[in-house]
Specification:
The protein has 312 residues and is α/β, with parallel strands linked by helices. The chain is 37% helix and 16% strand. Strand 7 (223-229), helix 9 (251-266) and strand 8 (273-280) form a beta-alpha-beta unit. Bound molecules: manganese (II) ion.
Length: 312
């Protein structure tokens, strides 16, 4: 069973508007599309809205994010405990801390596949903007803030909330990267899996997905959380998102990626299973005719087994 969890949170990025993302994904037919391929889908509704608040000299809207992530972690934990596969509908990518940390608490050998134009592994000191939405992987890794005072205290609280385990680098995979900040670059290296757009341009989607499978097997991962930021897609295809970067995945590349991931997961000898998914950063305020939510829903349907001939 799939459980949909809406997280209308958009207070730590550059633009507000992705709080409308969960509703846009519903109107794009996420439940119907997944039911059409035989999935049992339950929509748990949305988390509450959290009010913006920034402590003096603190990280912008830190409290709101902590309250949101803490509640999401609780809901995803419950979802996993009843044997469901949660799909967390954002909202900003910072919320992924909630689902990933809940899954990691139950699956010690979890790997995270981060499909995104951005690495989102900034710390408060390395981030050019200071926006929390670019820091979720640094929090999951338990990196230090590099700052003093209230910002350091807030960052320590963040790390504690997503702990006590620290996601290891060799269970972190990036796919579709094309805008990595200078301070992030020393972190986006092996033993993590990295498939940046230039590799996908040169060799294509299939070899990179096969390399991902080899990496998963080598590192002994037995479970997988897929965190899909719609800005991994090319902005011509998915303009409705906060931080667009040209040169992203085409429609066909993205679907091939989803279909190949499904094929890997369905192999009888596959040692890892899909435990949860984020679909984040859909921002209808910046979109045209809900096309970004539509393409995100279609992508999710491919990930869960929709094929052209329907012969999964
Ligand atoms: Mn992201």
């Amino acid at each position: 069973m799939i459980e949909l969890i809406g997280v209308p949170f958009d207070l730590t990025g550059k633009w507000e508007g992705s709080r409308l993302g969960p509703e846009a994904l519903r109107l794009a037919g996420i439940a119907e599309q997944l039911r059409a391929i035989g999935e049992d889908v339950k929509d748990l509704g949305d988390l509450p809205r959290y009010l913006p608040y920034t402590a003096k000299d603190g990280i912008r809207n830190h409290r709101a994010l902590m309250d949101c992530v803490s509640e999401l972690k609780r809901l995803v934990t419950e979802s996993l405990e009843v044997g469901a596969v949660p799909i967390v509908m954002g909202g900003e990518h910072a919320i992924s801390m909630g689902g990933v940390s809940a899954a990691f608490a139950q699956h010690e050998n979890l790997a995270l596949l981060w499909i995104d134009a951005h690495a989102d592994v900034n710390t408060p000191v390395s981030s050019p903007s200071g926006n929390l939405h670019g820091m979720p992987i640094a929090a999951l890794w338990g990196l230090q803030s590099g700052l003093d005072g209230i910002k350091d205290e807030e960052w320590k609280e963040t790390i504690e909330l997503v702990g006590p385990r620290r996601l290891p680098a060799n269970r972190t995979a990036w796919y579709g990267l094309r805008e990595v900040d200078k301070g992030e670059r020393p972190r986006v290296i092996p033993p993590s899996f990295v498939a940046a757009m230039d590799e996908i341009d040169r060799h294509g989607v299939e070899p990179s997905v096969n390399r991902f499978d080899e990496w998963m097997r080598k590192n002994g991962a037995d479970s997988l959380w897929i965190s899909f930021d719609c800005d991994a897609l090319d902005p011509q295809l998915a303009p409705g998102t906060g931080t667009t970067v040209r040169g992203g995945l085409t429609y066909r590349e993205a679907h091939l990626l989803a279909e190949l991931l499904r094929e890997l997961l369905d192999k009888p000898d596959c040692p890892y299973k899909l435990v949860g998914v984020d679909l984040v950063e859909v921002n209808p305020i910046r979109d045209t005719t809900n096309m970004t939510a539509l393409v995100t829903v279609e992508w999710a349907a491919s990930l869960f087994g929709k094929t052209i001939l329907g012969n999964r």
